[in-house]
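Reading a protein record of the kind used here takes only a little practice. Each token is a code from a learned vocabulary of local backbone shapes. With that in mind, consider the following protein and its fold in token form:
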Amino acid sequence: MKMVKSLLLGSAAGLVAVGGAQAADLPVKAKPVEYVKICTLYGEGFYYIPGSDTCIKLGGYVRADYGWNVAGARTPAYSGTQGAQDRTVSQYSTRHRANLQIDTRTQTEYGTLRTFTSLHFQNEDGVFSQNAARAFIQWAGFTFGHAQSFQDTWGITDSWHYAQQQNNSDTGANGVNQIAYTWELGNGATLTVGADEVRRKPIINLSNLASIGVGREALSSAAGQRWPDPHVDFKINQAWGYWATSFVAHDVSATYYACTGQAVSNSAVVTTCGHPDDKVGWAIQTGAEFKMDFITPGDRFGFGARYAEGASGFGAGSNLNSAGLFGSGNVVAVGFGSDAVFTGGTAGGGGPLPACAGALPPIGTAGITCHASQLQLTTTWTVAAAYEHYWTPNFKSSISGAYTSVEYNNAAKAMFAQNVCAPTTLSGAVIVSGGQGQFNGGNTGGTGASTGVPLNTPGAPLSIAGNCDPDWGFFQGGVRTQWNVSRGFILGVDVFYTRVFTAFKGTQANLQGAAFGASSGNANVVEPVVGARPNGIYTLKDLGTVGAVFRAQRNFNAGD
């Protein structure tokens, strides 16, 4: 019995020993490897790039816009082909966009080295496109590259409504090429000096027979870019909101007067005709936004004001085009945008004064310029405001509006009176005064058009000749309501109204469509003016349109 008990105990001890040995041979569970390390230096969403001390953040959004009575699912109908407002116009428009953002940051002995890239991939009305909305480097106070300009103060941007605000001075949507340096002054204040790629509106030579027309921008006689738009900006950002102001200088320089300089031979250069003196335009902008949490948490109010001379891309807005909005019947609202206007016509080919009529000078003779003038800068100003109210933490509405005035001085108005509003006076087939073939006060003589010269149907002068006021205005306002369905996902609708306060109000004008010769540059009368609107006599009056945009958008880890 003792022997049996000893055998059993020995067997049990052996099994325990073997089991222990087998357990010792099993692999030990390793500590988890942190392949991607979280970077907490710059806020949420950053990770260290493996093997480096650079932090990276990926983000972006997907957006779907559906618009009615707009172009590109966002632009109000008041200009270009959309301004025809007839059956040729597509009232329904869509735009779908995918956006990718890449933000990298690295600590250096001079502070944070940052790069930021934002790429748009979109399909607008069936047409695919892509662009870099941001591509910049920031280091030691400097900003190099394509970014939102520091001279932006306050505007009615996407955060307020979905339609593109035409009279905004804002580069937030797609950025601008620039270089800038920013000083941190403390207590939320900064001072920036910088230079942006030039932002231009046309410089119009009113002696050019085809310089202006309805349904398009004026032909521009601007010289090539010689220097960028320098600016000085101050901004203070604190718990109550922010205030910003900016001053911008702008190059206003034209190419040449139109004249009859000719080459001595085919191998010689053409004699140039002189040009107006260069001028410097300028703009001042200011704006602020206030947190209105004492009404409802999240509420805010913003306003902005801008004034410019010779810098209409700032004073009137970077998106505002020359207006050409047609209404029912033969009525139209027009307005011509510009940085400046001047005159300088061609001897023997349609100059603005009778003294300029006659044969071309012999080959080799210096050119003759008729009624040459200096540049007259266009004055523009804009006021804008918006308010946003939260009905619930996830449901809000905003109301916004902005008015712009485009004004010409007395010297410029005299140029319009001579070259645009005055009846076209003909000597046979030669224009000797007046002369805007697409927009003028009628004819006083002649029976037809010579080759390449657009002339209206002969007849009595129209009423525009007695009220030649090219000043005009533009208003855009709307109401946007948005539901924040969940974090980063929104649905909303924006309903807006635009109105053109027409130039030459209460008068009539003879409008003509035109085609431009590819080699000669001449303008020939064609039908129609724009869309299916026929050539003919139209009454000028203030007109407005209504449009709407529905948006669905999903943001993920997005920022700027």
